């Protein structure tokens, strides 16, 4: 077992990261760079190998609870936080890249896009999808959590984000924890208010989708907007 100071400088993880293409750096070397230091008994490279070995693959490691990570000898609170923060940034990069390619061309495609996020929620989540002139998703925003109320779902909040994101059109959606997507009178009233305001601002509300259990309700399909 070599301590980091015993490894030739040009073979240390940070130096290799500077010298070679990023794809040439192994997973354990990247983890070692994040962890920065090992201990008196173990180099950071060996610590990184142990961490990776414990979880078999990067996906499992990225989803590890922080308390579980801290059970590994040599991983304290700071190292656990730094490691999971790095993985979280990676997840967000992937999510941003995916979002820019999403095409929401039908109520069914909107339902499928939001289904995993909203279907099993125990509270109502009101979500806005902001699209550009090509119909591509620019931004997804959760604007409200809780029972829908026209005094809380205010058009100002919805269209403020539309302006910030230079959106041409908007789709809104919310879930019904009961599993029944049938709209309430409150749902219908809110939708009509938002649609009217969208017309005034020239940022059209394309649809309002209610997510239920394995089914959805589209205000556009039903001719309400």
Q: Can you tell me about this structure?
A:
The chain is 44% helix and 15% strand. The chain is α+β, with helices and mostly antiparallel strands and 225 residues long. The protein has two domains: 4-99, DNA polymerase, domain 1 (Orthogonal Bundle); 107-218, Cytidine Deaminase, domain 2 (3-Layer(aba) Sandwich). It is elongated and about 70 Å long. The model has no long low-confidence stretch (mean pLDDT 89).
Topology:
Elements: H1 13-19, H2 27-35, H3 44-55, H4 58-62, H5 66-69, H6 77-99, H7 107-118, E1 125-131, E2 137-145, H8 155-164, E3 169-175, H9 185-201, E4 204-211, E5 216-218
Parallel strand pairs: 3-4
Antiparallel strand pairs: 1-2, 1-3, 4-5
Helix pairs in contact: 2-3
CATH topology of the largest domain: Cytidine Deaminase, domain 2
- What is the CATH first-level class name of the largest domain? Alpha Beta
What oligomeric state is this?
Answer: single chain
Tell me the count of domains: 2
In round numbers, the mean pLDDT is 89
Instruction: Tell me the name of the CATH homologous superfamily of the largest domain.
Output: Cytidine Deaminase, domain 2
Strand content: 15-25%
Helix content: 40-55%
For the sheet with most strands, the description reads: 5 strands, mixed
Total beta strand runs: 5
Counting helices, strands and paired strands, the structural category is alpha+beta
Distance, first to last CA? 69 Å
C-alpha geometry:
elongated
Q: If classified by CATH, what would the architecture of the largest domain be? A: 3-Layer(aba) Sandwich
**Order of helical and strand elements:** HHHHHHHEEHEHEE
Low-confidence stretches: none
Radius of gyration (CA) equals: 24 Å
Determine the number of helices (DSSP H or I, runs of at least 4 residues): 9
The largest beta-sheet arranges its strands as 2-1-3-4-5
């Amino acid at each position: 077992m070599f301590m980091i100071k015993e490894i030739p400088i040009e073979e240390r993880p940070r130096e290799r990261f500077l010298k070679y293409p990023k794809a040439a750096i192994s997973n354990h070397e990247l983890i070692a760079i994040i962890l920065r230091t090992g201990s008196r008994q173990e180099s950071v490279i060996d610590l990184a190998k142990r961490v990776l070995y414990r979880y078999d693959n990067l996906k499992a490691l990225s989803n590890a609870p922080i308390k579980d990570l801290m059970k590994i000898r040599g991983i304290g609170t700071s190292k656990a936080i730094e490691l999971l923060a790095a993985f979280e940034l990676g997840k967000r990069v992937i999510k941003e890249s995916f979002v820019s390619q999403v095409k929401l061309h039908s109520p069914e495609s909107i339902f499928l896009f939001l289904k995993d996020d909203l279907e099993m929620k125990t509270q109502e989540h009101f979500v806005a999808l902001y699209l550009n002139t090509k119909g591509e998703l620019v931004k997804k925003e959760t604007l409200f959590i809780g029972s829908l109320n026209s005094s809380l779902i205010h058009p100002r909040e919805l269209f403020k984000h539309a302006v910030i994101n230079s959106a041409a059109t908007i789709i809104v959606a919310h879930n019904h924890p009961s599993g029944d997507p049938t709209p309430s009178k409150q749902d219908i009233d809110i939708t009509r208010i938002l649609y009217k305001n969208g017309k005034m601002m020239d940022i059209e509300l394309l649809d309002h989708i209610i997510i239920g259990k394995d089914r959805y309700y589209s205000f556009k399909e039903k001719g309400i907007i």
